Amino acid sequence: QVQPVESGGGVVQAGGSLRLSCASSGRTFSYYAVGWFRQAPGKERVVVGGSSGDSRRTSFEDSVKGRFTISRDDGENTVCLHMTRLLPEAAAVYHCVVGGRLAHAAKKYLYWGQGTPVTLSS
Q1: pLDDT exceeding 90 applies to what percent of the chain?
Q2: First-to-final CA distance of the chain
Q3: Is pLDDT at 1 greater than 90 in this prediction?
Q4: Measured between alpha carbons, how far is 59 from 95 in angstroms, rounded to an integer?
Q5: Closest to 117 (Cα-Cα) out of 41, 29, 30, 17
Q6: Are 100 and 109 in contact (CB under 8 A)?
Q7: Are 9 and 120 within 8 A, CB to CB?
């Protein structure tokens, strides 16, 4: 079983950058799609982006395109979300998710991490 574990959350200034990491405490991420979702207080959970299982494709929600990237190192069993030019609405709990195919729908992902919080300061 794959068990994603996120790290790297914290307080960052608006306009700044932050890198979130996701590691698996169980099976390797190899061949699995790995994505990120976020949920702000009082709001619905929304997709941020993800990486396909063969590492050839990434996909992002429109509002973060050009500012967020995803890197994965299957040898290290780690997937990172690199966030730049952070906007105030980026404040949320970020969840790493794992599934069979790259998708923007939460239901496509079988395994969810507990999340790591990101707070924006002005």
Answers
A1: 80
A2: 40
A3: no
A4: 16
A5: 41
A6: no
A7: no
